[in-house]
Amino acid sequence: MISLLDIFSAIILGAVQGVSEFLPISSSGHLVLVHQLLGVQTGLAFDTVLHVGTLVAIFSFFWKDIIDIIKGFVLSLVDLTEGLDTFKEGLKNSAPKRFSWLIIVGTIPTGIMGLMLKDAVESIFRGTIFVGIFLIITGLLLYYAERHKSGNTTAKNMSFKQTIFIGICQGLAVLPGISRSGATIASGLCIGLEREYAARYSFLLSVPAVIGAGVIQIKDIATLDISLTVLLAGFISSVIFGYLSIKLLMKIIKGWSLNVFAYYCLIIGFLTAVLSAFM
To answer: For residues 245 and 239, what is the distance between their CA atoms, to the nearest angstrom?
Structure first.
């Protein structure tokens, strides 16, 4: 039975969003499953509010990096006014300038894929059985990525071809059960990114995507038929748990294996797919 959202459910959904957005276990997939378990109906606009909460968590954790990115972008535009050669030289010699454009270029394929695939995904891949299948794929990606030795590529020597590839992988997270952070971190490790940088780049690459989703859904957010108290409960929950999840994964990525998340996705995905097929 479907019921309206209450404070308790909003807090649970916010916590699930915060944890699963940054840990490589798929926020979209887990939100679908938790919606089913709680028996509540929220809508895409409320889910976007939760995503904005995780955006606040990113800004809180990486505020220094974000300031450097903004400064680097502005300075690179100044370089561009002085000529294309000066612009290219700035990208070559300045890590903040280069990193700002690595984020921008990586966002382009994600945005294109999101706009092209969103409606098709929502109409074709309905039901929890697809969540289970894609969670299994996420688990396999993480397991495969951990078989690669850690690379040494960072913002200083990362190519734009590499960032386009990661942006495409991030775009695949439109599929329910494909983890955005899992896809970007795994793809980064596979092409030789240094482990901590792969996680940092993954988190910062999500900023434009989340902002874009918020802009698209802003009209729906303004007309949400949910009380302000419930909305704030979900938002604050996603901020708190999102921040803690970022902190946890940054520690894990430095010296631990991602296999625990791979096994988790494989087990949950298998159980979800099997139960969905026979229920």
So the answer is: 10
